[in-house]
Amino acid sequence: xxxxxxxxxxxxxxxxxLLFQSNFLALLIxxxxxxxxxxxxxxxxxxxxxxxxxxxxxxxxxxxxxxxHLFSIGRFPVTAGALLLGAHKAFTLISLLYLSQYMxxxxxxxxxxxxxxxxxxxYYFERIRxxxxxKRPLTEAIDEMLLELEVDPSKATKRETSKAPLREFLWNSxxxxxxxxxxxxxxxxxxxxxx
Amino acid sequence: xxxxxxxxxxxxxLLAACALFLSTVEYLVPKPLPFMRLGLANLPLIIALGLLxxxxxxLLALLKVLGQALIxxxxxxxxxxxxxVGTTASVLLMYLTHSLFRKWVSLVGVSIAGAMGSNSAQLLxxxxxxxxxxxxxxxxxxxIVGLITSVxxxxxxxxxxxxxxxxxxxLEGGR
Amino acid sequence: xxxVRLGDVIIFLLATxxxxxxxxxxxxxxxxxxxxxxxxxxxxxxxxxxxxTATFKGPVGETTIEIKEGxxxxxxxxxxxxxxxxxxxxxSPGQWIICLPNNVFVRLEGxxxxxxxxxxxx
Lengths: 195, 175, 122
Description:
The structure holds 3 protein chains of 3 kinds.
Chain A: H1 3-19, H2 24-40, H3 47-61, E1 66-73, E2 76-79, H4 80-103, H5 112-131, H6 138-148, H7 166-187
Antiparallel strand pairs in A: 1-2
Chain B: H1 9-28, H2 43-47, H3 54-72, H4 79-100, H5 107-129, H6 134-163, H7 165-171
Chain C: H1 6-23, H2 25-29, E1 34-39, E2 42-47, E3 52-58, E4 61-68, E5 71-77, H3 83-86, E6 96-99, E7 104-109
Antiparallel strand pairs in C: 1-2, 1-7, 3-4, 4-5, 6-7
């Protein structure tokens, strides 16, 4: 099995453990684990957009009050349950996000004709990035570049499908086990439930 | 509009690559709020309306969604659902508007239709998936931003078509 | 520049209509009836429109309420007389149910139609 497919598969197996996590604390641990995983594979973690996501989704859920009344803004009740629900959703989303980033770190290839097309798309993408210069007037600059890029049929690179080393199998199994363990910890309320 | 029944694979891939490039450009632009999207990646979809057969056009849309999902790594999270839903709605509307009303509508109108369709579909999705009732609150500013950006995008696209030599070349009959 | 055509203007107007329409959603959002529960430890608030159950701890045990189909009732309680359960469903703002032994006070607040009826105070 190639490295790309291995990570892909591992991620797919781990996915339900995130999606169906019922305990917020366990979810937090899962998220931290995945973020560290993604970052250690040179994916970037930017604090601000994630914070923004957490904030806006939590805020949005306040609209439907649920649970302990913490305080009110004017007549509007801010409830702990709603905040928790919002935060839970946000972290689920964030962890799924970084999981899928991890899954594509080894550049998996789609099977079949579609796969070849996507490879072609990325090939041209790289060429665009090389050929692009900003110039005024804009439309002319784009035009020139496009004309220049004259379609070079199927120079698309052949992806290497070397087998994944044993230690990758080990690592990915560990990831799967950890994430599912956290799922069961959450499920059987071994960690305290906040709601 | 040329229509060989053969799909011009390289051409579509090139356009899809443009969409990818534009979405990375958009990604670099800082946005105050997460849903204030510029929709730059839709530009190739708008411009290509006069150039592609419907099969090629759908393929372009598919490549745009998949390429974006792969490169941002969102492919297995539910954000990709927003991309799928939005692009599907917008592509359908744009294609229909363009082919049915070509005489009365320029790319500006097409762009607006696409953006409104995309935003509405995404709002509906967010109502059930992410924001709940609060989706109703976000709706007006989201739609307004969509209207403004789609008008600007449409104007640019329209202007590009009139001036571009590359466009004329492909208009007059494929590769 | 280039000509903007009639169809463009029509589409633009349709889009504006859509936006105006979306503003009407603001109305439905405020003044939704709420279920407010006062018990040991504080006050809890729930949306009457969202079906859910909730349990509160008090001096004699637990009291559980159920919100379903726009109504609320006490479905279970550890108190001796179970008067609160016998009280059945309430659905209008201003109504309330109380479990005295367990110190749980459930009341409905808010308005049914966007803010015209004021809630009663006790």
